[in-house]
Design goal:
This protein is of the alpha+beta class and about 240 residues long. The protein is built from 5 helices and 9 strands; from the N terminus they run E-E-E-E-H-H-E-H-E-E-H-E-E-H.
């Protein structure tokens, strides 16, 4: 809002500036594709595994499947997070389904054949935006796993139609901000996550008025800010993978 001082941000960022983002490929020896996604102090290890076969309901279709699992390691937060031995927590299930939907939105499952790719997203350090870092890093891991199949002549072409990435936005003390860290997210009046593609398409929007309703004008402002962030993320994905759709 006009007249209000901008909140002081990590890394001395401007309101529309993302944290330092780094995507490091091939960080796991045994994974078919892997990526360490770093959004500021948030770090997510993404590992893609390719397996023969598909879920029972998909057998005989000739089409493949891409899915994801998500978990926070015990020491990823300032208080130990218990391991999920006896079943998935609601938040973890919600996030892993989001990651799976996001990846499938840019994957040609018919061209994949009856193979299943599972991308495991493990948060090793959490400082806000773990789901958005997971999606952005998971695409890189998926790309590398599928490219390995092409290089082994197990697939005639890369079954990816494009790129997908994600970023958070919010309103904190009346100011629209891009890519919230934990302190900003915990004080946000409005909290939004955007999943988008390299060509400007929107895969999913998750938004909540945490403290009060927000206006259509504020929503448009946040989405515009988010789409600019998505373009920076897909440019980084392209840089590290040399992908061209």
């Amino acid at each position: 809002m006009a007249g209000k001082a901008e909140p002081r941000r990590s890394e001395g960022r401007a309101a529309d500036q993302m944290r330092h983002v780094k995507l490091t490929r091939q960080v796991m020896k045994n994974a078919d594709g892997s990526c360490l996604a770093e959004f500021g102090d948030t770090r997510v290890l993404c590992a893609a595994t390719v397996e023969e076969g598909v879920p029972r309901w998909r057998k005989g279709s000739g089409a493949g499947w891409v899915t994801a699992e998500y978990a926070m390691l015990p020491a990823s937060t300032n208080r130990r997070t218990p391991r999920e031995y006896k079943g998935r927590k609601g938040r973890s299930m919600e996030i892993e389904r989001l990651v799976g939907r996001s990846l499938r939105s840019v994957c040609d499952l018919n061209a994949l054949g009856e193979l299943t790719v599972t991308v495991d997203c493990d948060v090793i350090q959490a400082d806000g935006g773990t789901r958005t870092a997971s999606i952005t890093g998971a695409w890189v891991a998926l790309h590398d796993a599928l490219m390995a199949l092409v290089q082994k002549d197990q697939l005639p072409r890369l079954p990816l139609r494009g790129q997908v990435a994600a970023v958070s936005m919010g309103i904190v003390r009346g100011q629209a901000l891009l890519d919230l860290d934990y302190q900003e997210d915990s004080h946000a009046q409005v909290d939004l996550n955007l999943v988008g593609t390299a060509d400007g398409g929107i895969v999913e929007v998750q938004g909540t008025g945490e403290q009060a309703p927000f206006t259509r004008e504020q929503l448009d402002q946040l989405l515009n800010m988010g789409q600019e962030g998505i373009q920076k993320l897909v440019a980084l994905q392209q840089k590290v993978t040399n992908f061209r759709s």
